[in-house]
Every structure is written in C-alpha cells, then in structure tokens.
Amino acid sequence: MIRAYKFLMRPTVGQQTALGEMMRDHCSLYNGALQERRDAYRHVSKTSITYGQQSAQLKDIRAFDPERQGRWSFSSQQATLRRLDKAFAAFFRRIKVGDKPGYPRFRGVGRFDTVDFPKDGDGCRWDSTPHDPVTRVRLQGVGHVRVHQHRPVVGKIKTVSVKREGKRWYVMLTAEQAEPDPLPVTGSVVGIDMGIASFLTTSNGEHVANPRHGRRAAAKLEAAQQALSRCKRGSKRRRKAVTKVADLHRKVRRQRLDHAHKTALVLVREHDFIAHEDLRIRNMSKAPAPKPDPETPGGFLPNGAAAKAGLNRSIADAGWGVFLQILTAKAESAGREVMAVDPRNTSRRCPECGNTAKENRPTQEKFHCVSCDHQEHADTVGAINVLRAGLVRRDANPA
Fold it and tell me: What is the pTM of this model?
C-alpha cells in the first residue's frame, strides 16, 4: 500500500529564497506551456499539443535559459507539464459528461505552491539515517534542507513534493509499504448519522459534538478581511493583511482535520463494521433556484436563499467529506469495513415497526412514530436505520 507523510521544513534564509525561485520558475514553465497550447489551438488550425511534444522541448528550454529553467530538476519540470496535461484531460472529461468545463487557467506566482519530484533520487533525495538526529531532504538547486520529522517513515520512498503554505514550507512523501496487520476483532458494528447540531450520532446513542471551528473563527476572519479590503493593492500593508487572512483560514483547516482524524480513529478502534450515509454533499449545498414573479416582469419571489446560505456554511464547516475520506483510509489500514448506504428516509423510518412517514419527525431532534408511538432522538433513529441497511448490503454482497 502507499502511505503519505507530511513534514515541516526548516530552510535557511538563502534556502527560502531558492525555494521561492523554484516555485516561480516552475510557475513560469506551467504558464508558458498553457499559452503554447492556447495559441496552437487558436491560430494553427485548432492543433492540439500533447505532453510528449512539450516534454521534448524541455532540453532546448533549459539550454536557452540556464539561469532559471536550467538549474532545476528535469524530472520536476516534466511533472509540472504533466500537471497541465492532467488539467486539460479533466477539462475534456467534464465536457463529455456535461459538467461545467472549467478551462485551465494561468497561475499567479502566489497560487502556484507545489513542485513534484516523481522519483526519490532524481533531483531530490530523502536523507534520513538512524544515527543522525537531523533529517534533511536534498533538492537540486536548493541544497540540503533540514526537516522536522515528527514520526518515522516506513517503506520505500516513491515520490517527493515540496509545498508552500503561507510562510511555511513542507515536504510530502509517498512510501510503498507492506499491508499493515489488522486491529484485533471487537465484534462491534455501528451506524453513524452525520448532522449539524451534532457532528455525528452513532446507533448506540452517542453524540459527537460539532466543534464549529469556522463559526468560532468568523469574527476574527471578518475583521481580518475588512482590514484587507481597506489596504491599497501592491502595498506592504496589504501583503501582511493577506498573510493574516490566510493564516486564519489555515488554522481552521488544521483544526477541522485534527477533529476528523481523532473522531475517525475512535470509530475504527472500537468497531469492526461502520455504516454511514452516502451523502451527496455538493447537491446538498447548492443554492436554491430563483423563483420568477409572474405578476412582476423581471421580479423574483422569496426562495429562502438567505437561510440556505447559512445552512451551506454549516455544512462546509462540518467537513463531512474530509471526515469520510479519512475514516475510509483509516479503516482500510486497520482491516475494518466501511460501507455507504442510501440515506433516503433513514430519519423517518421507525426502527420498531418500520413505518415511514414525514410526520414521524415533528422536530429536528424528536422522533415520534405515529403508528406505534415509539419515541427517540431523531439522529439516533437515523443511525440505527443506516446500520441496518449497511448490514443488509454487507450480507447480500459478501467479500
């Protein structure tokens, strides 16, 4: 299996400058390759240029500009061209399926923040020896950069990437390693119901609180963004304000990831089988369609857009999609089974008699069956029904 690692780099002042130049030159290469594709399609009878053609030009580009393009790894530059090729492949794939195309765009220097090295030892070298307490990564054109390695790397290093996040630099590794030993069997199964009031509720009746990191940081973010809007473009004050806004967003993201990792780890350690709703988060967070007013040409009727916007912010703040990805990855490593089930009517179906009706859920939290008078927390009922549906699907499709 392939496992990813992310470590903080501690470059010197000179190395920080070199890393910034590496990002700038790879960004220039990306934008130049994009411009070449645009020009070829527009002016040369709609000719499409492939990755192979652009990769073949790298040798001449490096010879023409040895001070900028010639000092960096050839393989990393090929990886940058592959990134552009993947962007075009995704663009044409979206066109075929009828989605919004999203034509590849030029990248500003501040928005190009990752350089990939496809192979350890080709333009980069991960240097972690047991007898040396200091870990370093060697990057062509930069040198040996110190790394804060907070956990051991197991397996053979496959790829190395350098990423910039604000003022910090990170190195990301992928390592190929043997399948880990599964965790001891607990004999426990559980269903989970994702929500806003509670982050999730289990079929055992346990509620995990929703930390609402985004809402708690909203006041600071609002003040920082207002200060940013008052700064003159291109000024030093504006650069500082941009950094502050980015730092606040980065802190919320890290808090959300930390909560997702810890919650998923508890579930994986305690249960052999975990069933969850197969949520279509993108559809759930869509803005409501406008309602034209038939009596007023050009006018519109209220459609609840303001209330839906608040709900969409809460859904995004909960981070269900990130949590489910982390849960699936941890379960795979631990030998656990995770299964997604159809979420329709899970909170309206009585777990006692099976009656399904809208009236069974009079409020957001209360479940009261109109047929058998069964009462319980609505989220617990949803989790119970999710677990039952997951067990039925598992038994119908044995591994």
Answer: 0.85
